[in-house]
Write a structure and sequence with these properties.
7-stranded mixed sheet; about 25% strand; globular
């Protein structure tokens, strides 16, 4: 592991909140890989993070991704936001190349209209129900520049197959849940490992069918690409552009 990170990582609890894993190596390596995932997706439109003057890491936690954007922070204005006040406090102290704030549970955020050129996100919409998702998609569309770019991840087909396997191994039948996901395109599960955890009651597990993303998210953005397993080889990554 890089020596600098071994001295400046958040504590075990903060690492677990953002990765569901407590190990230092995964916190560091997954952050580096997420940046690579974003760059790979932006390459589809011949862009890079450094091409955008003002960038937001939406749901930044304790800087898992921002820790790897120090170089980018020298040439672009980096921001981060999250509902986790303790994680943001750590990021404010240890990630000085980004301006990090605590976000409300529901919009509006404190950001002005058309403020960002690029919004990055890993695993926020994988925890929100349909109402919260709709509210935040509309808010992201408000705070991004016309023609600006967003990269958002979702739990898609691959993630749901892993969930099904874990349910079967526990002796439960996931068939009704699969049918609901097939029928409605979105599946929000309250009885999950996040229940009674450190986050608010609305924070649980959500899965998306690709058709749902195309049908519903296109109300706020143009969908430029849908990349199965494009985020840490597990979640799907959606490349979006704000309509001019």
């Amino acid at each position: 592991m890089n020596e600098r990170f071994s001295r400046e990582l958040p504590n075990e609890d903060l690492r677990w909140r953002v990765t569901a894993v407590r190990e230092k190596d995964w916190f560091v390596d997954s952050g580096r890989r997420s940046v690579q995932d974003f760059e790979r997706a932006l390459g589809l439109i011949t862009k890079s993070i450094k091409d955008y003057p003002r960038v937001l890491d939406f749901g930044c936690g304790a800087g898992r991704i921002l820790l790897h954007l120090e170089e980018a922070g020298r040439v672009v204005e980096l921001h981060g936001c999250d509902i986790d006040a303790e994680a943001i406090k750590w990021a404010q102290t240890n990630v000085p190349w980004a301006r990090c704030i605590v976000n409300p549970y529901l919009p509006p955020s404190e950001y002005p209209d058309a403020f960002f050129d690029l919004i990055l996100n890993h695993s926020v919409f994988s925890h929100l129900d349909e109402r919260y998702q709709g509210a935040w998609l509309a808010e992201l569309a408000r705070i991004i520049q016309p023609g600006g770019t967003a990269l958002l991840s979702v739990n898609g087909t691959h993630a749901f197959e892993g969930f099904e396997k874990s349910w079967r191994e526990a002796g439960a039948d996931p068939t009704p849940l699969r049918e609901k996901l097939r029928r409605e395109g979105i599946l929000y599960i309250v009885e999950d490992s996040w229940k009674a955890g450190p986050f608010p009651d609305f924070y649980h597990s959500t899965f998306h069918a690709p058709w749902y993303v195309f049908e519903h998210w296109s109300r706020c953005f143009d969908i430029k690409a849908y990349i199965p397993r494009g985020a840490l080889d597990f979640q799907d990554l959606v490349l979006l552009q704000k309509r001019s």
